[in-house]
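Morning. Coffee machine broken again, so started the prediction first thing and wrote up yesterday's gels while waiting. Chain of 380 residues, entered below exactly as on the submission form.
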Amino acid sequence: MSTVQVRPCDSYDLPGLRPVVRECLERLEPAREGLVAGRRVLLKPNIISARGAEAAVCTHPQVLRAVAEIACEAGCEVVIADEPGYARTASPEQIHAAAGYAEACRDLPVTFDLLKRGGFRTVQVPSPLRLQEVLISNLVLDADLVINLCKCKTHQQMLFTGAVKNMFGAVAPRDRIRIHLLATFDAVSQAIADVFSACPTRVNLMDGVIGMEGKGPSSGTPRKLGVVLAAEDAVALDAVAESLIGYAPGEVHVTTAAAHKGLGVAELARIEVEGADLQGLRTRFKRPPGGVNRGFPAWLGRLMEGKLWVRPLVVRDKCTACGACAAVCPAQAITIGNCAVIDSAACIECFCCQEVCPQNAIDTRRSLLARGILGSGGHS
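Came back before lunch.
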């Protein structure tokens, strides 16, 4: 049996939200044991796109604020970080300000960061379904406690995005592309479950006050659900949330794949819900248009492998060979001669080099296929 905390919560008004979040966390043993003075705690929200709270794309700023308050009160060193989008080169300050997090936590002693800035290391996937190994952010791997702050949303490719899917943000950009190129609904679902198994996540809290229906995870419509959910078992949390918004058991293959790997319980009969009667909370969300998007044919994904990339490009007349890019490169893919030289085979496409270059000498280079799919910015 697994246990999921479900608490009704009608608004993001902090005086009402704060005790709901606190009660949920106090019921989770890993949170009670992990929120201790001196511990390094990573709060991983869902920032798929740095949009304001009214869009219901990101974990709400006040949910993040409530959790950050609790961690700070306990004397923890709190880092708030995500990696919102492939080859995104904005600064942590810009992203967290756009999502409303900087303002919400302006008086708290927290640090805002991006998951790529700590670098990545290779993790062997236990009981792999699709991936033998995956590059995971060091900020996630080195935290004493990771609190997974997900958002309840539909998803046009995977049907639903919750706690398990939220940790996909911990993956290096190059691996994200590799996983998407698996192409089929089942293959990508299994790969996402593999990623989750490589992340040390034991505290999961879902923002279900206002979720998203329809064209989720970023182009859908905000829809009130009116709950906050929390669990040590992310699979059980997702299974309960899916049932609340109208998905049938087993319909979301990310959840079933994670359960198959032994990462949690997906059968509702084996999940104990504490704090609320689910029957009175059920709200059928509008499905993603067109039913299940099972991706493109697997053979097409294999054909595209190695042909879809976005990489940093050194602008030689601007480069002063200062070495800042080589010093920050998590993959150690840069050497310094007369100018910086990037090893394309070793590059994980995180663009840390571009962030730190004092001469703006790192541009963006896109493959022909990437230019067609992502637009014509950068070089061919």
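The two ends are 53 Å apart (CA to CA). Going to sketch it on the whiteboard this afternoon.
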